[in-house]
UniProtKB/TrEMBL annotation:
<dbReference type="GO" id="GO:0008203">
    <property type="term" value="P:cholesterol metabolic process"/>
</dbReference>
<keyword id="KW-1133">Transmembrane helix</keyword>
<feature type="transmembrane region" description="Helical">
    <location>
        <begin position="408"/>
        <end position="427"/>
    </location>
</feature>
<feature type="transmembrane region" description="Helical">
    <location>
        <begin position="229"/>
        <end position="249"/>
    </location>
</feature>
<feature type="region of interest" description="Disordered">
    <location>
        <begin position="1"/>
        <end position="32"/>
    </location>
</feature>
<keyword id="KW-0472">Membrane</keyword>
<feature type="transmembrane region" description="Helical">
    <location>
        <begin position="269"/>
        <end position="295"/>
    </location>
</feature>
<protein>
    <recommendedName>
        <fullName>O-acyltransferase</fullName>
    </recommendedName>
</protein>
<dbReference type="InterPro" id="IPR014371">
    <property type="entry name" value="Oat_ACAT_DAG_ARE"/>
</dbReference>
<keyword id="KW-0256">Endoplasmic reticulum</keyword>
<dbReference type="Pfam" id="PF03062">
    <property type="entry name" value="MBOAT"/>
</dbReference>
<comment type="similarity">
    <text>Belongs to the membrane-bound acyltransferase family. Sterol o-acyltransferase subfamily.</text>
</comment>
<keyword id="KW-0812">Transmembrane</keyword>
<feature type="transmembrane region" description="Helical">
    <location>
        <begin position="53"/>
        <end position="75"/>
    </location>
</feature>
<dbReference type="GO" id="GO:0005789">
    <property type="term" value="C:endoplasmic reticulum membrane"/>
</dbReference>
<feature type="transmembrane region" description="Helical">
    <location>
        <begin position="353"/>
        <end position="371"/>
    </location>
</feature>
<dbReference type="InterPro" id="IPR004299">
    <property type="entry name" value="MBOAT_fam"/>
</dbReference>
């Protein structure tokens, strides 16, 4: 590494350390102000050879999965498979997915002139309190109506006719992203026409905010001076590699264990348990890859293209021992929106406990809608993990996590492994049970098929043997 690069990386690390000290208040909440700073992993990979070695390990795992897929299919079938079949099927019917996205984008664009009309009316009648109050009520009703159209049409369309898993996930994630964007703009511009009211965004700034890697609206954001196109290309290549990574994990760990699930009327419990534990490691790797793909590579690429200076999309959640800090640090982009638009307005009236519960409930329901529309069935595994067990862990680790940080950091990582293994196995079982099991009158979007088909049984000669009997 050259001397100039070393100095530049050292300055980034120093700026990151100083910014980290300023982003956490005494009450543990994260400051909402923006400043120019790099993502934690950018700093760590640039400055720590140990973290860079871990990065290289994941690259090598990807290469080994690629070699395994190519060589196995070459020997078995006489053709080379580079994992594109899963990607093509996952992003199937991309035309319909693109049309749904364009509809969502059109609704968000139509919101801007409606906002300008509302603001002009408030300014015109700013001295008439009665009319202004009526306009405020109409504005709330209009905002709710726009949001209902934005999420209602895609939900009805995807619920009526299932779209491929990845395409549906993109459409529903974008649906919620646009929803939070226009809500943030509406709340920020609601006081327009009053004393010291905020300025309305120009159309250019509005478009910028729609694609900026933040959900919190501000009149100005810190900007960088130049665009490093090599940096952008590198992160987009990482996104493509991680998509390929997950396709290999699906082909090598999901399909062999679960693709035939439901073809037989009965399945031995041992095979189910073996398959569930076989999903733990790939499920956890997919969890890490998903975090890196979306919250680091994708957001950093867009931040660089838009010269968006604040790259703190997450904090160092991997070192924490408290679930409260993990939920704040894992995804600062969404957390900041939930904090500003749900928790803070509710906390003075409902109290911190109820407000926290509502935040978890809203977030869990949104995640469950994405999964239900993506898979084509409702199976609230993530809802239970995130909205029930995750919520219970908040008070359990609040004080004990501070007293025993190493032990509870270990417990957190254990929960990540176990929880993601359950997600990968249970959703896969349900997905293939609905494909392979014969149809019946009791089939429903909301009732899991894998609970009744196939029947999970023990071996006929199964008996429990005391593992300590060898000592006698």
């Amino acid at each position: 590494m050259s001397t100039s690069n070393t100095v530049r990386h050292r300055k980034r690390a120093e700026n990151y350390d100083s910014n980290q000290k300023n982003i956490t208040k005494q009450n543990g909440d994260v400051d909402s102000e923006f400043t120019t700073r790099e993502s934690p992993l950018t700093v760590l990979i640039d400055n720590s050879p140990h973290i860079r070695a871990l990065y290289h390990i994941f690259v090598v795992i990807l290469l080994m999965l690629l070699f395994d897929t190519m060589i196995y299919d070459l020997v078995e079938r006489g053709k080379i498979n580079i994992g594109l079949n899963v990607i093509i099927s996952g992003f199937g019917d991309i035309k319909r997915g693109a049309l749904l996205w364009l509809f969502e984008f059109a609704v968000v664009l139509a919101f801007y002139p409606a906002l300008r009309i509302y603001a002009a009316a408030r300014k015109l009648f700013r001295k008439n309190t009665g009319v202004r109050d009526s306009l405020s009520k109409l504005g709330v009703i209009g905002l709710i109506a726009v949001e209902m159209v934005l999420i209602g049409v895609p939900i009805v369309d995807l619920g009526r006719r299932h779209l491929a898993l990845a395409s549906s996930a993109v459409v529903t994630c974008e649906m919620f992203r646009f929803l939070m964007k226009i809500h943030a703009v509406a709340i920020a511009c609601a006081p327009y026409g009053e004393n010291e009211s905020p300025a309305l965004p120009t159309f250019k700034h509005y478009i910028y905010f729609l694609f900026a890697p933040t959900l919190v609206y501000r009149d100005h954001y810190p900007r960088t001076k130049t665009i490093r196109w090599a940096f952008v290309l590198f992160h987009f290549l990482e996104v493509a590699a991680i998509i390929l990574y997950n396709s290999f994990l699906w082909e090598r760990f999901i399909l062999p264990y679960w693709s035939d699930y439901g073809r037989q009327s009965k399945v031995e419990a041992g095979l189910v348990v073996r398959g569930m534990f076989a999903c733990v490691l790939p499920g956890f790797i997919s969890f890490l890859c998903g975090f890196y793909c979306v919250l680091h590579a994708w957001l950093n690429a867009f931040a660089e293209m838009l010269k968006f200076g604040d790259r703190l999309f997450y904090e160092e959640w991997w070192t924490t021992s408290r679930f409260s800090h993990y939920y704040r640090a894992w995804n600062r982009v969404v957390h900041s929106w939930l904090r500003d638009h749900i928790y803070k307005p509710l906390a003075p009236r409902a109290g911190r406990a109820i407000s926290t519960f509502i935040v978890f409930f809203v977030s869990a329901v949104a995640h469950e809608i994405i999964l239900a529309l993506s898979f084509g069935f409702f199976y609230p595994v993530l809802l239970m993990e995130f909205g029930v067990f995750g919520l219970l862990m908040l008070p359990l680790t609040a004080s004990s996590g501070r007293r025993f940080p190493n032990a509870f950091n270990l417990i957190m990582w254990l929960s990540f492994f176990f929880g993601n293994g359950l997600l990968w196995s249970l959703y896969s079982m349900e997905y293939f049970a609905r494909k392979n099991c014969p149809p019946s009158q009791s089939d429903s979007f909301f009732i899991p098929k894998s609970w009744s088909c196939p029947e999970v049984v023990l071996k006929p000669d199964w008996t429990f043997q005391n593992p300590l009997s060898v000592l006698y």
